[in-house]
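Worked example 2:
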Amino acid sequence: MLRTVRLLIWGLVALAAVGFAALLLRPASVSPGEASLAPAQPGAPGIALGGPFTLTAADGQPFNSAQALAGKPYAIFFGFTNCPDVCPTTLARLAALRQKLGQGSDAFQIVFVSVDPERDTPEAVGNYAKLFDTPIIGLTGTRAQVEQVAKQHAVYQARVKDPAAPDGYTVDHGAAVLLFGRDGKFVGTIAQEESEPPALDKLRRITA
């Protein structure tokens, strides 16, 4: 009887060991909403975010990224004009980083895409971009267009009811800035909590 109990115990131990090993060997998965927050290195394999897109610029005209951003490094951020904290803080930070880079306002383009097209008209996005006293490309579009571009960049965005917010809703969205080189390829992110030195280093790499 004692031998049988010992065999059962050792069997359970073996099963637990196999299960633990399987967990260690299983590749980590990143949901689309988390992809923009995942750390990425320039040229990292398997990273294929971005791609050509068409939205509406502040002047009401179509903005074709393949033409307007050709050969230009850029930082793209998804947010909305009624955002109380993350969006203005992020755009102001990008403006400050570009100034500290010391290469002028053409060093890299700052692209702001609204994830609230129902409220953010081209005029509203344009006026919002002017608040930061630096060239910022403000873009909006139809709901379908915005969702497609957000999907291309693996950026999470969702409308959420909020009685205290204007019109009774707010928009949750990814807070990372995505960086693209002159060839239009994704090279990394700047996270919301990232300190200035590594952020500047990443910007130097895409503008070199």
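Strands lie at 54-57, 62-64, 74-79, 109-114, 137-140, 157-161, 169-173, 177-180, 186-190. The chain has one domain: 35-207.
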